[in-house]
Amino acid sequence: MDEKLIKDYSSPGRKGYSLPPLDVPEKDLNAGLGNYLREEPLALPEVSEVDVVRHYTALSEMNYGVDSGIYPLGSCTMKYNPKRNEDLARIPELTQLHPYQKDDQLQGSLEILHDLKNYLAEVSGMDAVTLQPASGSHGEFVGLMIIRKYFEDQGDLRKKVIVPDSAHGTNPASAAMAGFDVIEIKSNERGMVDPAALREAMNEEVAALMLTNPSTLGIFEKDILEIADIVHEKGGLLYYDGANMNAVMGYVRPGDMNFDVLHFNLHKTFSTPHGGGGPGSGPVGVKEFLAPYLPYPVLSKSEDKYFWDYAKEKSIGKVHSFYGNYAVMLRAWAYMVTVGGPGLKKTTENAVINANYLKTKLKETFELPYGEDSLHEFVLSGSKQKKEGVSTLNIAKRLLDYDQYAPTIYFPLVVKEALMIEPTETENIETLDRFIETMLNIAREINEDPEMVKNSPHTTVVRRLDESQAAREPDLCW
Ligand SMILES: *Cc1c(COP(=O)(O)O)cnc(C)c1O
Predict the structure, then answer these.
(1) Which residues line ligand 1 (CB under 6 A)?
(2) Which of 20, 226, 276, 288 has the greatest number of CB atoms lying within 10 Å of its CB?
(3) Closest ligand 1 atom number to CA of residue 244
(4) What angle is formed at CA 415 by the lines to CA 135 and CA 199, rounded to 5 degrees?
């Protein structure tokens, strides 16, 4: 773990290369036009190839990622990304293009993007899709700007957006950025939106309800059609936060639940790498009546040609340079075409089975505050353990000692000491069993030696960091 700097491996005269004997006349670089040679040699480390490879491999092993093991961050969907997506996104025919090239030189690429839009529309039950937004939260903002423009067009200036208390923090933030006032409604004791509470909050000043279904508790809103009616009856629209699409794909479609606008997180649902700040991709889908408001240019097809259509007078405008994060789209397209419709359905099935397996095995030891049936993720509470003086944060830190990543903690806010667990469909039963065994072990340790758990992690490269300082002032120097 205590890896030295590369310069500390240096030994005079050691080399990582060999050159064939000189077969041309030797030339003195200082004879002639000027002095080309350094007076002092550069202070570069003198190391062999094996020194270099071992050094950087050791550094890479201090990290943890989806390629290392389970990464059960609830809501984030950190699943394994098949390497064939990477292979496809790297072929020179796709990477050696420039967005300023003419449409007729890019027909193959445009066809891929056009197909991707169609697949997304099909999976979600929407009529039109833009690929421009760069993330889920960017998609939310774009969706809300579309809603805003739609109401402006109707001469109906609605100022409010309703968001349930279990929502992801980006929902109220996006609504506020798009110029709306946010009204929060409380979930009921089953962890769902209460139609009566919604009816009370809903009126003609409300532009939209933003909903995640299943919610961040992993619970499907069974009253969704009634909820949609309540909003539509007062002229409002329904926004679907599609981050949990991997819980329903192939089974139900947000469009059929009567949502009007949604975003996808290609980097969650469709198996493209994410984390560390990007890049992602958050396409937005809408029903037909909102299609004129989508960002331009719109990728269209006339006869056999694909082209970018800028003639969109009602469009909210451009929201990304060029056409969005193309390389992420390529990976998502590769994933969708290789697994196909039945594969996406199977993905959903396995995600739900895996989460329910973990839930069943852990719910005796850790409190399960909402007992409703859940889909691809579930939320436990560490409140029993908190009574022993050990917080959820401590449990998360202790997991790292077992070489496993921690779940999302302290979110959603409706659960005290929350542990939000999403194993994803790509983990096998041995990996799930190992995670279960580790969690049960930690619960036992809390009874036997709480101080040890409180001081964890013990085996990681760095120990307890000041979390906000670590995020704001990363220590990148030796
Ligand atoms: C991840 C997530 C978002 C935000 O998506 P980003 O791509 O991270 O911006 C929004 N809502 C939910 C429920 C999420 O899990």
Answers:
(1) 75-76, 135-137, 168, 170, 212, 216, 241, 243, 265, 280, 282
(2) 226
(3) 13
(4) 75
Span 20-63, pLDDT tens digits: 999 999 888 777 767 778 888 888 999 999 999 999 999 988 88
In a domain? residue 187: yes
Nearest CA to ligand 1 atom 5: 136
pLDDT per residue as tens digits for the range 138-180: 999 999 999 999 999 999 999 999 999 999 999 999 999 999 9
Q: Is residue 249 part of a domain?
A: yes
Atom of ligand 1 nearest to the CA of 216: 13
Report the separation in Å between the CA atom of 34 and the middle of ligand 1, taken as the mean of its atom positions.
Answer: 59
Alpha helices, DSSP H only, in 90-129? 92-95, 107-124
Spacing, Cα 169 to ligand 1 middle (Å): 9
The two structure tokens encoding residue 92:
């020179």
Q: Which tokens in the block code for residue 392? A: 């959820």
Burial class (CB in 10 A: 0-12, 13-18, 19+), 44: exposed
Ligand 1 nearest atom to the CA of residue 267, by list position: 7
Is 198 a domain residue?
Answer: yes
Ligand 1 atom index nearest CA of 282: 7
pTM, two decimals, is 0.91
**Are residues 174 and 243 both part of a single domain?**
yes
Domain that holds residue 173: 83-339
